[in-house]
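Morning run. Coffee first, then this:
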Amino acid sequence: MNQSTTAEFNIGEAAARSGVSAKMLRHYESLGLLPAIARSESGYRQYSERDVHTLRFIRSARDLGFKITEIAQLLQLWQDQGRSSADVKRIALAHLADLERRMAELAAMRQTLQSLVQHCKGDKRPNCPILQGLSEAATPPASP
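And here it is:
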């Protein structure tokens, strides 16, 4: 009997083997990212080696910042031996463009905050360019 296909793990063991918390295992199952998980006669989840491998795939995709909807698409493609790598690349390129957009937004935030911090003396006086800058940003623009 091949142990890798018949091994059954409880939720704690599957979590440890996959690097995904038990809570997230249940969540991924509820989202349909995992196929129906086998249950013991007493109702406990029994994860197979294949389930654990799928969980590792999901964890890897999450580590790269893919959204759940993208992970669902990638899982579908991963499991489809007739897939086109162009479909996989399209998802990855869209995600990469989103990452680059967010990185540009973060860089702009960093630059603004760095400028505000540099202009603040950080002494006992009440005048604070950081608070002034936040206040100006919170003021709605004047109507034309």
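The beta strands are 38-39, 45-46. Good start to the day.
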